[in-house]
Amino acid sequence: MAGETNHKLGALFSKDDILCQTPLADGNEVIKALADLAARHCPGADADSITAAIFERGNGASPLVPGYPLAVPHVRLDNLPRIVVAVATSSAGIRFGPDPNSSAKVVVLILAPSSQPGMYLQVLSAVARSLLDRRTIERVASLRSGEEVWQYFNGRGLELPAYVCAADIMNTQFVCLRDTDTLKRAIDLFAAENLAEIPVLDQDGDLVGVVSENELLHVCLPDYILWMEDLSPIINFQPFAEILKNEGKTWLHDIMTREYSALQCEAPAIQVAKEMARHDRRQVYVVRSRKLAGIITLQDFVNKVLRE
Description:
The chain is of the alpha/beta class.
């Protein structure tokens, strides 16, 4: 990421903040044990209050990173002077839920100051870059001492990014349409997915437009109808009926809008907020060059920047 960096990831914890090859197999018990380690760095907070805050913040949700044997429980705390990190590893696995496949081999606890809303995401970005794939996680989980685990993180020399970028808060699981799809396909998706707006990609995966519920209304209601005082001639939705007759022959590239907000992955997250406020957008598209990489909704932004 662009910009100056401030801290190395390895400087946020030491070998004494690591439970290497923990015998604990239950995820909640591991979180409690990590909270006990972290409490030494948290004036005015004890392990019980930290644990309670983590569980309350999670509200029953699993801290597992989808698709990886990695868990990242985290919470923001008042009066915390700095970021606090504690790590647990287990080559046997740590269960987070009844599903035997829902287990982690590395658990990274992150406590962030409430007064620094982007700090957790900066640390999470550095953690993600240090544990790039399943093989790397397995390798860290196989290390035999806290010193070795700390040396792994510290030896990589990873620094916290100077700012939270769009890629740090985007959602990479999204629904999209192709410009060769029909209006029928769009209506079906809107009805099934409860979405207000759907990105449209071309055959190369480039973002080329957006279809929204408002666009569908404008397609169904020509401009002259908006000026009609007497709606009795169309009281039974005749314009909609006409559109539905041809929904399988109406192509999205003919009706989609090219007015949308898109930012590069490296754009500062604060720019996302600016786009939303300036153009009254409820979501911003994140691209890598022109390829759609993710979507940030207003709810995503509020949750991740102001609450996570």
